[in-house]
Amino acid sequence: MALKAVHVSDVPNLDHVPENASLALYSTRFSNAGVDVGRGGFKIPKFVVIGHRGSGMNVLHTSDRRMKAIKENSILSFNTAAATSAVDFIEFDVQVTKDGCPVIFHDDFIISEDNGTVYEKRVTELSLSEFLCYGPQRELGKMGKSLLRKNKDGKILSWNVESDDSLCTLEEAFNNVNPSLGFNIELKFDDYIVYQQEDLIHVIQAVLKVVFDHAKDRPIIFSTFHPDVALLARKLQSTYPVFFLTKGGTEIYYDVRRNSLEEAVKLCLEGGLQGIVSEVKGVFRNPGALTNIKEAKLSLLTYGKLNNVPEAVYLQHLMGVEGVIVDLVQEITEAVSVMIKPSSEGEGEVLLEGEDQIQVKAKPQFSQRELSFLLKLIPELIQI
Description:
This protein is 27% helix and 21% strand. By secondary structure, it is of the alpha/beta class. The longest helix has 18 residues, at 197-214.
């Protein structure tokens, strides 16, 4: 049966929030103050570090053992990140199986092998039981079907990590991960599929049900690369902030709303979103866009490989970025705690450099010329 497209304005608000749902972005790692998620009142209270897919994404073809130490998007990875006291949130990808269960998995397809034949199946076309039968099973010592992965060059690799773990659902993450750790839930959709809005609404509703039933006081941020999903996620609830994910102009898409930080700001203002999550290279290439983002009272987070470079993270802090999604969780949280340390008077922050302490303003303001000069201090960041 054909699906009928529905305009965002015609979608009923589904913000029926149980009493135990969190109304705050703050966790015990922040403060006890509440926060209004309306665009005019939303504010991230401190510079946040967010663990990418938990304690970091897996890169199977690298020689860096840190990138294949723990299975990404797993309970083990989430709790490993939670054990890092300075990490505030973890980011992970949620898709919904064909029988309506939100599961945590980044790739659009699961790749496996049977009798020497490699095959792939779309995650959203699997039932929950089919999805969970891949990789290590919950029964101790039991292995399911093989789990492979395709790198950017198209090469198929065995998904071998030092510490493996089973695939999991969103509900399991809520029930088994330290409750003080915030969740940045990316609503994941395939760039190569044109979705009817009824499809989008079905997925968002399934995710919201789990969140409202299990979040309790856990801080939650929703994010997505899909502009219409961002608008719908905001329309369907007003309890949790919604951020729009963008490449920031480093890649070009058919949908112009995805092609620049300026377009991201327009989308956020149109839909009452609370913030933007940009590829960090997009911010470094267009630092002037931060003025528009701040004037629009939007929060800005970043992601990308450069966020594993401490100097790049500190530069973003100076520019006014409010948080970073990182793979090297331990290293970056330690660097941030050293480089960005509140002063005893609470009037500013201290950059520790050897034996010297350099006082900097809590909210430094830089002209375009000054920002350009700062960028030149880290030339490897602009040779991209």
